[in-house]
Amino acid sequence: MMNSTIENMLQHVSVRSFTNQPVTSQQKNNLVAAAQHGSTTEFVQAFSIIEITDSTLRNKLSDITVSSTHVRKADTFYVFVADLHRQANILRKNNQSLDSIKNMEALLLTTIDTTIAAQNMAIAAESMGLGICYIGSLRNNISQVAELLQLPDFTIPLFGMTIGVPSSKNQLKPRMAPSNQVAINSYNEAQFNDLSSYDKIVKNYYVNRETNPANTSWTDKNLAIFKEVHRADIADFLRKQGFSLN
Ligand SMILES: Cc1cc2nc3c(=O)[nH]c(=O)nc-3n(C[C@H](O)[C@H](O)[C@H](O)COP(=O)(O)O)c2cc1C
């Protein structure tokens, strides 16, 4: 039996157009609480959430996203910050080396914790009938975002999230068949790469969708995305924030 939580999850679509109706402060409190109550590596809670209420700042962030102009209009906008700065301060106060928060393992940890918090917020928002969209395109200029938000060392603005009352919703985007993504006991190379049926389904979705129809399959789309290197400045930014990338 499917319950209402799962039903809501299976109805997920990113929402990019919102009514002017506000998200209430009660709703915002619940959203933040949901985010804070996710699982977190060894209870370290290595993330921070910054709500952007200043309209000048909001417009600057929207400009950075270039294509995600809905950032300007959504009632509520949060930036999710991967954050090991508290831990850095604790180590500094105790005259300890920062090596344990500089390495790749710590970078993964904080990225994972932050993403879990965000997805908890997304599920909570959708359960209240609100719509959300992740905004990774903040990383188009990650240094400028860090500057605008006055982020200290060992923090990373991973992505934003717009939240509001949906004024329209896109069609559901068809996901892969479970056999393309789920295996038992070991990686299933053949099954996971047998994407011809899925390509037909996705092409059918893109050709027939109401907004921005396109004659493209999932494979075509991924080729277009990954044949180019994106945001080659990220590693330099992470080093600037104190990470060693070792
Ligand atoms: C980490 C992350 C970053 C994203 N960044 C953006 C973004 O900058 N702008 C945008 O319009 N959508 C963004 N999206 C939304 C995805 O494009 C969307 O989830 C995907 O196409 C699947 O569509 P659906 O969410 O409607 O099912 C992002 C999603 C994730 C998970």
Task: Describe it.
By secondary structure, the protein is of the alpha+beta class. It has two domains: 4-170, NADH Oxidase, CATH 3.40.109.10; 178-223, no CATH class. Helices cover 45% and strands 11% of the residues. The protein is built from twelve helices and four strands, in the order ααβαβαααβαβααααα. The chain has helices at residues 4-10, 25-36, 55-65, 85-93, 99-102, 104-127, 142-148, 178-181, 189-192, 196-208, 218-226, 234-240, and strands spanning 47-51, 76-83, 131-135, 155-164. The protein has a four-stranded antiparallel beta sheet with strand order 1-2-4-3, with helices on both faces. Helix 2 (25-36) runs antiparallel to helix 6 (104-127). The longest helix is centred in the middle third of the chain and has 24 residues, at 104-127. The chain starts with a helix and ends in a 6-residue tail after the last helix. The mean pLDDT is 97. Flavin mononucleotide binds next to strand 3.
Q: TL;DR of this structure?
A:
The chain has helices at 4-10, 25-36, 55-65, 85-93, 99-102, 104-127, 142-148, 178-181, 189-192, 196-208, 218-226, 234-240, and strands spanning 47-51, 76-83, 131-135, 155-164.
